Each structure stands twice: as structure tokens, then as C-alpha cells.
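BUG: 3D viewer hangs when loading the predicted structure for this chain

Environment: internal workstation, default settings.
Expected: structure renders.
Actual: progress bar stalls at 90%.

Input used:
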Amino acid sequence: MKKNVVTLLGLLLPLITCAANLPVVKEVDVQKYAGRWYEIVRLPNRFQEICEGEVNATYTLRSDGRIDVLNACRKQDGSSTSALGLARLAEGPAQTAKLEVRFAPAWLGFLPFVWGDYWIIDLAEDYSTSLVGTPDRKYLWLLSRTPTISDARKKLLIDKARNLGFATEQLIQTRQQP
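C-alpha cells produced before the viewer hung:
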């Protein structure tokens, strides 16, 4: 029994350490971060399976300090779909690069599991690109203020994500209209 517990801890410790060691940018000016972002690439996820292209997110600051999140995309049949969510600072105003987002109804907001991590792990100085992920490395998005970015910038950010332990070989290139 004792050996099983030690073995289990040995397997879990690297996962816990990996999650705890995902670096984020030092500071994010949420005023500058607000606005429209275009998805360039993403790791596959169940809530975006219907998205064929033109994926974007619009962040709007609220008077209560939280952020409205409107995610939109074009489906395979050509129609559009969107989801309205809410973001909040995960660790208070001192840590502006770690947010939590929920798309569940407001009355479920008290449940911790309806909030998902949204950690900004890279942000261009001019707020033109952003690399967002989760500490468990299951979710990753490369976002841009424009529908396309240079191949060099995209490679740089994907390489950074790979070095941080994300499965970049699974990335999906987002189709955007220029």
C-alpha cells in the first residue's frame, strides 16, 4: 500500500509542478487588452468543434471591474454563432495576467468549476498578439489584433508554447478572412 502511494505521488508531482510553473506576463493593462482579438491557432477543444473559421473574441470592460467576453465564429454551414461569457481577475488586481472565464449562466457563477483559467503567457509590447493558455496545458490560443500575423511571429509564439509543454503538434490553424 505504501509503495502504491509513493508511486502515485511520483506520477502526480510532475503534473502539479508543471501546472504551477506556467509563467505569465508580468502585467496586463486591461484597458489596452480590451477590444477585438482574432484567433490565429488553437489547441482542439470541445466547445469550439463547430467553429470552421473567422473565430474572434471581443473583450469589453465593465464598471464592476470584470470583463464581458463575446466569442464568435463561422460554422461549417456558413452561419455564425456566438457565446457571451464573463471574465474576472483570478488573483486580485495585483495579478492581471491570470483571469478566469465562465460561459455558464450567472446563477451558476458561485460554483468554482464553471470558471476556466485564462492565463496570458505572452503579450506583445504593443498588444498586437497574445498567447493564452491554461496551467494544465490542455488549452492554448494564439490571438492577434489582425486576422493574420507574420509567419516569423507565429513560429516564435508556437515555439514558446512548445517549450512550455503545450502539444503544439495538435494546433489547428484558424481560417480568417483578411
